[in-house]
Design a protein that fits this description.
The protein has a four-stranded mixed beta sheet with strand order 1-2-6-5. It has a two-stranded antiparallel ribbon with strand order 3-4. It contains five helices and eight strands, in the order βαββββαβααββα. It is of the alpha+beta class and 126 residues long. The protein has one domain: Zincin-like (2-Layer Sandwich).
Length: 126
């Protein structure tokens, strides 16, 4: 089951404020819905903590969002606030917004290097 969560929105706002490289997202934040899913998600044997998806254009006629960021509650339940901030930071880095166009930015080595440089390799406390 999915549910919109204002606590995740507040966390995203805090993460954007704390990270200068995300300031361009301030404009698009109202166009992102933050949700929890009560199901466990895996990709193969790996646990999926969260994911980001672009809302398809035909669905934009029905809902006022450009992106959906979903956190999988069973997988994130034991993460502390700092870990959740890193996870939110990672998900927000997938949001591509140039003032007009929305895209999903795929994983790349720069993304992971940035997270390691900011938070180290053992940022997850569980």
């Amino acid at each position: 089951m999915y549910r919109i969560d204002n606590g995740l929105r507040e966390l995203a706002e805090k993460v954007v404020e704390e990270n200068g490289n995300l300031t361009s997202l301030k404009e698009i934040l109202p166009g992102i819905v933050f949700m929890y899913n009560t199901e466990t998600k895996r990709s193969g044997k790996k646990v999926v903590y969260a994911d980001t998806e672009k809302v398809k254009d035909k669905y934009r006629a029905l809902i006022p969002y450009y992106f959906i960021i979903t956190f999988y509650e069973p997988n994130t339940a034991d993460l502390d606030e700092e870990c959740m901030k890193v996870l939110m930071y990672h998900e927000l880095r997938h949001v591509g917004w140039d003032g007009e166009n929305c895209t999903i930015i795929p994983h790349d080595i720069e993304d992971f290097k940035d997270i390691i440089d900011k938070y180290g390799t053992s940022w997850m406390s569980v």
